[in-house]
Amino acid sequence: MEKVEVLLINPFLTVQADDPSGISPPLSLAYLAAYLRKRKVKVAILDISAKGVNQIKKIGNKVRIGLNDKQIVKKIKKYNPRVVGITCTSTLHASEALKTASLVKKANPKILVAMGGIHPTVEPEKVLKNSQVDLTVRGEGEITFWQIIKKFKNAKVPQNILGTSYKQGKNIINNPLRPFIKNLNSLPFPTRDLLPMDIYFKESLKHKNYTIGKRVMSVITSRGCPGNCSYCSIKTIWGRVWRARSAENVVDEIASLIKNYKCDEIHFMDDSISVNKKRLLEICNEIIKRRLKIKWTTPNGIAIWLLDKRLLVKMKKAGCYRLTFGLESGNKDVLNNYIGKYYNYNKAKEMISFASEIGLWTAATFIIGFPYETKKQIEETINFAISTDLNMAVFYIANPFPGTKMYEDFLKENLLPRNKVIIRGCKTKHFSHQELTNIQAKAFNQFMKSRFKRPLLYLNKVKSLGDLLYIFKLGKNLMEIFINQNLSNKIKKSGIAALWK
């Protein structure tokens, strides 16, 4: 193991025991490493969860996935970095990130520990209360982290750097945020060569997945979203400014992934890839022009109101096989006046139907359990999902994250338990958490039963042996979920589900 100046760490993963592993490449660290390497900094990435993916320790109703504490300390000592950057993508994973910081200091107290991501951006004061974290990176990280490395001398924490927060005695100093990088084409491609890519490929095939390809890789073509949804914490990092890479730059990266990793499927992980229809069309044309053999999809969601039939046809031709739409609610009042999204339900149905007609698989995400949402409003969401030609629907329970309007509403109504991280939603003005969990299961069951009555929505996608194999895989996964949920409901003695009869 080679000694480095900077070590970037993805912490171990703690999940519910019934969750899949969730191991995926930390692209944020790979982008950071690429930026540093371009500036001749000797950098490495340690993905603790991936490197210890087979080390699973049960902790109550959760499991910890990743290297153990002793192994982590040993690796840090071998790398012997001057600076360590730890990612903390969500408040849900704050404890893992802070524990990792303590292990870094245990390995060498002189290492400068910086933490970045959504949680340190939104709540730097809480992070810096931990004595093991020297400073936080708020917002976009590449330039800020580079400045930290340049200015870190004589064991003194750098202070006057845009986009950072640090401790000064008992006070927390928040420097102004750094302006966003305007030209994303100037950023080098993520350093996937510093990541254990074979582990990610292998793990993705172990668990229930909905992909056609066997070597799936994620790509981010833009940053930010102009939307202002009440539940979304993404704007705390990127603001509401949308910036995009050029079509040529995006397809250059895809071509390199095919060449270097034999990638056969791309997941575009943008928060809003379709803001500029012209650019999305150019990406499709570039893929077609280069004759790249690639399948792709949009698992983070795509704005259905920004699509049209011409674009959908081009996307299909360029290798798109499945689209996920962030529809969120079937009740107009909740959609417009609480969430802050605006689209026409009939137009959405039309786009879903057309996508299905041309052979695209369609899925949508819906959210239930907003703080003021009623039974009737949730029923309208479920009924709307059923009334469409969607192949799949996922019903999430609203989870209040710091930095969002929804979080403030839950606080205002005294609905958040004190000093507890919310993992799967919480009670609302009208429902207990257990009631919402039962409603969520009932919604999925109702949707799947409605799809069993419409087999042509699935069979009309079969045009080849590959399509047939995919529909078998998809059907098997969905049937397992359906059967398990129904068995679970039969075992439960609670009568809460009767609320929906």
Tell me what you see in this structure.
The chain is α/β, with parallel strands linked by helices. It folds into two domains: 6-174, Cobalamin-binding domain (Rossmann fold), CATH 3.40.50; 215-490, Alpha-Beta Horseshoe (pyruvate-formate lyase- activating enzyme), CATH 3.80.30.20. Helix content is 41%, strand content 17%. The protein contains 19 helices and 18 strands. It has helices at 27-38, 48-51, 69-79, 94-107, 118-122, 124-128, 142-151, 197-206, 235-238, 247-261, 277-289, 309-317, 332-339, 345-357, 375-387, 405-412, 433-452, 456-459, 465-491; strands at 6-10, 13-16, 43-47, 56-59, 62-65, 83-87, 112-116, 135-137, 164-168, 171-174, 216-219, 222-223, 243-244, 265-268, 295-302, 320-328, 361-368, 392-397. The strands form four sheets. Strands 3-1-6-7-8-9-10 form a seven-stranded mixed β-sheet, sandwiched between helices. Strands 11-14-15-16-17-18 form a six-stranded parallel β-sheet. A hairpin with a 2-residue loop joins β4 and β5 (62-65). α1 crosses α7. It is globular, with a radius of gyration of 23 Å. Residues 491-501 have low confidence and may be disordered.
